[in-house]
Amino acid sequence: MTQKSTGMQSDSQLGEAEHRREEAPLDSRSQVLLEGGADEFESSSGDELWQERERRNLFKHVEGLGELEDVSEVEYRKVRLERVVLVGVYSSAQTTSDEAEESLRELAALAQTAGAQVLDGLLQQRDKPDPATYVGSGKARELANVVASQEADTIIVDDDLQPSQRRALEDVTKVKVVDRTALILDIFAQHATSREGKAQVQLAQLEYMLPRLRGWGGSLSRQAGGQAAGQSGGIGSRGPGETKIETDRRVIRHQISRLKRQIAQMGPAREVKRGSRKRYGLPTVAVVGYTNAGKSSVTNRLTGSQELVGNALFATLDTAVRRAKTADGRYYALVDTVGFVRRLPTQLVEAFKSTLEEVAEADLIVHVVDGSHPDPFGQIEAVDKVLAQIDGAADIGRLIVFNKADRMDQAARLRVSQLEPEACIVSARTGEGIDELREQVESLLPHPDVRVKAKLPYSAGALLSQIREFGQVRQIGYEADGIELVADVDNRLAAQVISQSIDGHDKQE
Ligand SMILES: Nc1nc2c(ncn2[C@@H]2O[C@H](COP(=O)(O)OP(=O)(O)OP(=O)(O)O)[C@@H](O)[C@H]2O)c(=O)[nH]1
Ligand SMILES: [Mg+2]
After folding, report:
1. What is the pLDDT of residues 51-61, one digit of tens each?
2. CB 3.0–4.6 Å: which of 33, 298, 358, 481 could bond 374 by disulfide?
3. 280-444 maps to which CATH number?
4. How far is the CA of 315 from the centre of ligand 2 (A)?
C-alpha cells in the first residue's frame, strides 16, 4: 500500500482534532507539526485502520450512494457542508513527503474554511499523476472504498485536475470531485463582500468554468444572476447536446465580458480613493503576506483599528485602508491586503490584480509572516512569487515581520533572525515587538524633504494644520504680522507655503 494516510482520519483523534480545528484550523495544524505529530499519526495509519475501513465497507452499499445522479452537469461546485476526503499525489523527485503532508494539511484548513468536514487525507507517491484518473485506476478503486467507508460525499484533490481526470475519478468513486482551484475560488466567493470583490471572484469562477463545461442541466438562469457557484443538485435534464454546450459557452463568455466591463468601471472609484490619499500626501504602507499570517492583527495593532480578524483563511478579501500616525505626528496609510496562498489560482491572481495594484503604489511593503508556522520560509517564497507578478512591486522597499512570536520558541527565533537579520519579530497578540516595528516602519517611510522658511498670515490656519499633519514643524513663532515658520514638507506643501506666504520671498534649501 503506497497510499499513506496523513492522520486526519483516525476516529479516536477525530473528535479532539476537530474540536481544536474548530477554533483554529491552521493553529492546530502547525501545532501538530511542531509537536512531531507526523509520527504520532503514523501508527494510526497502519494496516489495522485500513482493515477496519475495509470491514466497515462490507456493510456499505457503494452503488447506493447515488451521488453521481446528483452530480450537476456544471463542473464548478460549492464545497459547503460536505464530508470530504482529501487526496494528494506527489513525486519524490520534486517534493519531500513532509512538504506533501504540509500541503495536504493546508488543503484541510482550506476545506474547513470553506465549511467542509475533513474525514480523511490520503497521500500517494508516484512519478507523475495518472493522465486518466489522476491517482491511477487501482488507487482510484481504493479511494472509492475509503470514500464509501467514511461516508464521504466529496473528494478534494490537492492539485488542478483536467476535466477528463475529474470525470474519470468521479465515475470510479461515485462522489463528486473538486480540485484545489475550485476550492479556493469557493472560499473567495463566500468571503467577498464588496461589490467589486464579488465581481472579481465571479469573473475568476467563470473563467475557471469555461473550459470545463460539459453542458448545463437547466438554463443558466437558475444560477441567479449568473452566479457561477454551481448548485450541486442537478436540476433539469442531463446530457444536453453539443449545441446546448456551445450556447452555454457563449452565455458565459458574454457574462465574462460584462463583468470585465463592470469591474473596469469600478476602477475609477478606487482610483479616486487612492488619488485622494496621494493628494493628501499620505505615504502608504501595504501589508501583505500569507493567509492567516496575522496581517489584519498587525494592522490593528499599528493603527488601533478593529479590522476583521478571523481564524479562517482569507478572512480579509477587500483591501482595507487604515490611517496611522507616526511618533512625530505625521499620518500615513496602512493597506491591509488579501492573503496569499501556495499555488494561488491564476484566475484569482488575474482577478485581484487591480486590487493588488494597491501594493504596487505603496511606499513600503510590510510582509507579515506567521513565525510559528513550521515552514515560514516556504510561505515567504509563495508570497514573493505572487508579488513578482505585480508590476512595480519589485522596486518597493520591503520589511519582513515574523508574527505570532508568542508561539515561537527560542530555536525558531534564532533561525529566523539568522536567515532574515533585518526582520522584526512581533506578536500581535501580546504586543511584543510592535513598538520596534512601528519605529522601523516610520523610519522607512518617505520623509518630507523640502525645508521651508516663511511668514504665513494668521489666516493660513488650514495650511498650517496640514503642515503639522504631513510635514514636520521645526520652528514656529507667532509675530504681530504673521506666523514665522520653519518646516520640513513635501513638494506639494512647499508650493502652497510659497504661494500663501506674506513676503513671497521664502527661502528653500
Ligand atoms: N498566537 C498568535 N495568534 C495570532 C497573532 N496574530 C494573529 N493571530 C491569530 O491568527 C489568526 C489570523 O489572524 P488575521 O489577522 O486574521 O490574519 P490575516 O493575515 O489578516 O488573515 P487573512 O485576512 O485571512 O489572510 C487569528 O486567529 C489571530 O487571532 C499572534 O501574534 N499570536
Ligand atoms: Mg486579514
Report:
1. 544 444 333 32
2. 33
3. 3.40.50.300
4. 5
